[in-house]
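Morning, I've got a small favour to ask if you have a moment. I've been staring at a protein lately and its backbone has me curious. You're getting the sequence in one-letter code plus the fold written as tokens. I've dropped the whole record in just underneath, so have a look:
=====
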Amino acid sequence: MSNAPRPRRVPEESLRYHCAPMSSERVTLQVSERGADQVGSRRVRRLRRGGLIPGVLYGKGHSRAIVVGERELRSALTGPSGLHAILDVVIEGQKTPHHAVLKQYQQHPIRGTLTHVDFHEVRLDQPIQASVAVQLIGESPGAKQGGVVQQVTREIRVEGLPTAIPEHIEADMSSLEVGATVRIADLEAIEGVAFLDDPETVLANCSMPRGIAELEAEEAAEGEEGEEGAEGEDGEPSAEASGGEGSESGTE
């Protein structure tokens, strides 16, 4: 049976969690509908060479093939709200914007540039689900003692109104000791946002490196053996002392 200590949770009152500014900032994105001459692998590659990114705008019961400038798209998705920005997508020739969020995107495997985007229209008065990044901040006391902080979960699923979804959630590690874990259940509630994943999902833990942990276990075992030996010497008379007492008894 392993003698390793069971991970313990950080006391709830000692944790401080923060969330990034909500994605309430609205960004206007000008796009164009793709015609029949802009559909197909060969034609799409030509668009990309010209600095345009193909995509799809999904609405309720319909979808539109679109194209957007790479610079304009990068500018819209690198603002304070990042990938969770609410976009006012304006199709060329139309005046009414389509409120949308980025649902999926594809990147070039080497250059890392965007090669395709999917936008989903949303209603600002209806909740949506999104995956939000977890960022660890602060210095763990366990790390100062030689422990290693490991982030186990990098994203959690949340639900809320589009304007309430945070760009990311920051977890403060300043109370994380060696052997402790931080879980979703430890997160403070965010107004208007629900966590959808299992509350017992571990976000981060702190443990000693394997070599150090084994060395400490060996030292602890040796200390226990030394204490037992000392007790035996103090509590039992020696054989020589026992024999001497018997000899004196016989002469008397």
Notes: The first strand starts at residue 8 and ends at 9. The chain has two domains: 8-21+129-207, 26-123. The CA atoms of residues 151 and 159 lie 22 Å apart.
